[in-house]
Design a protein that fits this description.
single chain, alpha+beta, Ribosomal Protein S5, domain 2
């Protein structure tokens, strides 16, 4: 589970990111993100609609799997962003963890949210 400081609290902020954020789409999910200058830490959210899976147990499983992958990638993300993943397919429920990680990494790299690695080249 992600820490308290990295979660959204209330639906207002989620709606704001949903409405005003920039979208990155993949076949299984959509990532919306928005820079939030008021925050030092990035906030993460996962939205799974009833259209994706009718049962609450299935939706919660999808949500938990995506949250875990985002938690593992959190140290690599730039700080101060609001990031929401909208799940578009029930395949995420049974997808291998490696593939889910690759899909999320690809979307977040395309968004430019990953920290850039600083190359330390010496000049001689």
């Amino acid at each position: 589970m992600i820490s308290y400081k990295n979660r959204f609290h209330g639906h207002g902020a989620l709606r704001y990111v949903s409405k005003n954020g920039t979208s990155i789409r993949s076949q299984l999910l959509t990532v919306k993100y928005l820079k939030n200058p008021r925050r030092k830490e990035s906030r993460l959210g996962v939205v799974v609609s009833k259209k994706v899976h009718k049962g609450a147990v299935g939706r919660n499983r999808i949500r938990r799997r995506v949250y875990e992958q985002l938690r593992l990638q959190l140290p690599e993300l730039e700080s101060g962003y609001d990031i929401v993943c909208f799940i578009a397919s029930a395949q995420v429920r049974t997808l291998p963890a490696i593939e889910l990680t690759q899909i999320l990494e690809g979307a977040l790299q395309e968004a430019g949210i990953y920290k850039t690695a600083i190359k330390n080249d010496t000049i001689e």
